[in-house]
Design a protein that fits this description.
Strand order of the largest sheet: 1-2-3
Structural class: alpha/beta
Distance between the termini: 27 Å
Strand content: 5-15%
């Protein structure tokens, strides 16, 4: 995970340090991507945060940027339960579209009507609670 500090430094050199970085887009998604297991995610977050600080960067990490909300909350909990990885977390995020991709027009219709798929929103209170701790 050496790429994030390198990229953050390049942005900083260009005069635009991004406030947030992600470890890996959709770490809970297996092939064709590379799946990061939940215990490994927090283990990656610790040294990554330390490396960013050692380079004088203030970037925080988006946790977890997961594909499926029910999986993303497990990554979030693993990253936030310990003080060290928690200090490097800057935002909690997941992709709420996983349940509607079989019928994208239906997903868009319901979302536009402020009625997103139930599985997409049912974990939001738990995510808010994690963020408030």
């Amino acid at each position: 995970m050496e790429l994030q500090p390198v990229l953050a430094l390049r942005f900083l050199d260009a005069g635009n340090e991004p406030p947030h970085l992600t470890i890996y887009k959709e770490p809970d998604l297996g092939p064709p991507g590379y799946k990061i297991e939940i215990p490994d995610y927090a283990a990656i977050l610790k040294p990554l945060g330390r490396r960013l600080r050692a380079k004088g960067l203030s970037n925080k990490i988006v946790v977890s940027d997961g594909w499926i909300g029910q999986d993303a909350i497990l990554y979030m909990w693993a990253a936030l339960v310990e003080p060290e990885p928690r200090q490097h977390a800057g935002a909690l995020a997941y992709h709420g579209s996983a349940d509607g991709l079989d019928h994208p027009s239906l997903l868009l219709h319901h979302s536009a009507a402020s009625n997103p798929p139930h599985a997409t929103v049912q974990i939001r209170p738990a995510i808010c609670e994690l963020g408030e701790q």
